[in-house]
Amino acid sequence: MDDHNSVTLKFEARLAQVASELYDLAYIQVDANLSIVRVSPNLLSVLGNTDQVAAGIRLTDALDEFFGSEQTLRSILHNELPSFKIENINRARPDGSLHYLTFHVLPLDPDQTGSALLVVVEDVTRFGLTEQNLLQKRNELSILQGALSSANAELDRRVEQRTAELVEAKQKIELQLFRLQALRENDHAILGTTDLRVALRAIAEQAKSQLSVDLMSILVFNPPLLTLETVVALGAQSLDLQTARVNLGESMIGRAALDRRTLSFPDLTESIAIPQDDPWAQIENLQACYSVPLIAKGNIVGVLFLGHRSWLRPNQEWLDFLESLAGQAAMAIESIRAFEDLQRSNYELALAYNRTIEGWSRALDLRDRETKSHTSRVTETTMMLVRMAGMTEKEIMHVKHGALLHDIGKVGIPDSILLREDKLTDDQWEIMRRHPVYAYEMLFPIEYLRPALDIPYCHHERWDGSGYPRGLKGEEIPLAARIFAVVDVWDALSSDRPYRQGWPAEKVYEYIRSQSGTHFDPQAVDLFLRVITGETPASDPKINNLP
Ligand code: C2E
Ligand code: SIN
Ligand code: SIN
Ligand code: FE
Ligand code: FE
Asked: pLDDT by residue (tens digit) across 153-194?
């Protein structure tokens, strides 16, 4: 008998422990090249040894045991697959203990194909919520049930009351298993969406049915306004409750948030210390209500409010389950907000980079005595041509940055040479020819601009290998640079220089045509002439109609 009881107690303790720690997520953000861009600060605690998992390292190298193949990752990046999940991976921590991980791979922004991936790492060790663990628990339960039923024979000859206790214990365990499954479904709802409303509705629906109450609502804290705003309200009779906004510190809800403690009123008619006139209890005609603060990482993120139209007599399991649900709702709010912040800071960063690049580009034009229209004309023309050559939007973005900054290396060239109103001497020309290398030295250390280097570094290479700085030949020259070279020379020759007048359009096209296969890639010349002149014969006056 005592043995059976201790088995029951141990098992219950385990279930309680499982239910008390429900959520432990970390993430790894990966760029379109599958390189790690950012990891969440708690990655170490979730993943264990993270020496290899750091910004700049490719995901397939960092976690090659899980992501050895790029195929699936790329499918998700390009929206061919919505997401995928590697479940229940066991991994040894540095101290030798095993823990279980689930990896969920999702596109960071499903609307922007090919942009970035998010790898959500979930430590499921403590939850025991994986399919396999649940199965194992079912096995334990049936062993326990077997033990209990054989104990029943013995018990029958003893006290009837003891039998009833055991039956009750058995039912409790079954109920807990059922609730664990509900919590697990919530976890899936949270992971499957980045929409707070959807995640909280799933949690509220589970909570309302599992706790068997009439009313269940979740309010989210809005720190600047110091209000709690209803995101979901199930079972409310009054429409007011669906959109309620409560000030911090006011009513049962605002007070639970301010005081950071659960306000419990299992029977409002018996209680003296409670606000009988609380608008929520009144409007909804409640006889019992609980207001539970949602706290994540020490911060108030909302309140879970439940109500019932008759009194409640909650047992410990009910209260524990309520607490677990509140923990889950808090983590949902916290993790979805963190995800939104992450997305926002990505956009802000990209905007800041773009403004910086445009500022530099303008500064270069001013020093070079170029007009702004020169840089924007070559940039837009080049973008149009590479798009027609089949580049992806991401590649085109790098081409744009490269074109805007194509002569950034000229910041290393003294004014006496750059602004010279005459032909350059051999020595001066030697220095001028360094500008692509200066561009390489300036941009290479800037990770974000490294993919944009093709044009600044290679725009003076020539198809026949006679260009500079490296004397690259043919397709050794990046496509973007081959196309840009045509556009740059077209624009340079069409413009006045201190040392010569701009050429007429027809003379420029004739020159470009004459350099096809020597200075320029013949295909780049064909593409350029087809787009710019509409492939009309050289004598046709329409060629002057430049875009
Ligand atoms: P840029 O003026 O923007 O010229 C870009 C490219 O257009 C030149 O690259 C060249 O391929 C072509 N191009 C420009 N002007 C002429 C021209 O009058 N005739 C011919 N056939 N092609 C021309 P390149 O030659 O590598 O020159 C790079 C940069 O060096 C030029 O950029 C310009 O800033 C400077 N530069 C080149 N030649 C002279 C020069 O004689 N005097 C001065 N002051 N600067 C020069
Ligand atoms: C890289 O460093 O190759 C990636 C940078 C980016 O995608 O902007
Ligand atoms: C690029 O220039 O950005 C890619 C195209 C290529 O290098 O062929
Ligand atoms: Fe240049
Ligand atoms: Fe230029």
From this structure: 444 444 455 555 556 655 665 666 566 666 666 666 655 566
Pocket test for ligand 3, best of 383, 387, 388, 391 (most atoms within 8 A of CB): 391
Cα–Cα distance, 233 to 181 (Å, whole number)? 23
Ligand 2 centroid to Cα of residue 32, in Å, is 8
Asked if residue 255 has its Cβ within 6 Å of ligand 1, the reply is no
Taking the mean position of all CA atoms in its chain, how far away is CA 246? 31
Helix, strand, coil distribution of the chain in percent, nearest 5 = 55, 15, 30
Query: pTM, whole model, 2 decimals?
Result: 0.51
Q: Give residue for tokens 């725009």.
A: 459
Closest CA to 327 of 4, 12, 25: 25
Task: Tell me, rounded to whole angstroms, the distance of Cα 451 from its chain centroid.
Answer: 22
A 10 A CB-CB count for 540 gives 13
Tally of CB atoms within 10 A around 243: 9
Ramachandran region, residue 114 (left: φ > 0; alpha: ψ -120 to 50; beta: rest): left
Stretches in the chain below the pLDDT threshold 70: 1-25, 41-42, 48-51, 88, 93-97, 109-112, 124-194, 271-277, 371-372, 535-547
Residue 489 Cβ < 6 Å to ligand 1: yes
Distance 522 CA to ligand 4 centre (A): 20
Cβ 181 vs Cβ 19: under 8 Å: no
The answer to whether 504 and 538 are in contact (CB under 8 A) is no
Q: For residue range 189-225, list pLDDT tens digits in order.
A: 655 566 788 888 988 998 899 899 999 999 999 998 9
Calculate helix-pair angle for 505-514, 522-533, nearest 10 degrees.
160
Residue 79 zone, left/alpha/beta (φ > 0; ψ -120 to 50; rest) = left
Q: How far apart are the first and last CA of the chain?
A: 92
Cα of 356 from ligand 3 centre, angstroms: 23
Tell whether ligand 1 has an atom less than 6 A from the beta carbon of residue 415.
no
Structure tokens belonging to residue 311: 């009194």
25-31 β-sheet, strand order: 36-39, 25-31, 116-123, 98-107, 84-92
From the CB of residue 81, how many other CB atoms can be counted at a distance below 10 Å? 15
Query: Tokens 């002057």, residue?
Result: 544
Q: Which residues are CB-neighbours of 380 under 8 A, at least 6 positions away?
A: none
Q: What's the pLDDT score for residue 82?
A: 75
- CA dist 134 and 119 (Å) reads 24
Ligand 4 center from residue 329 Cα (angstroms) = 57
User: What is each CA distance from 477 to 77, 390, 471, in whole angstroms?
Assistant: 28, 17, 9
Locus of tokens 């991994």:
91
State residue 18's pLDDT score. Answer: 37
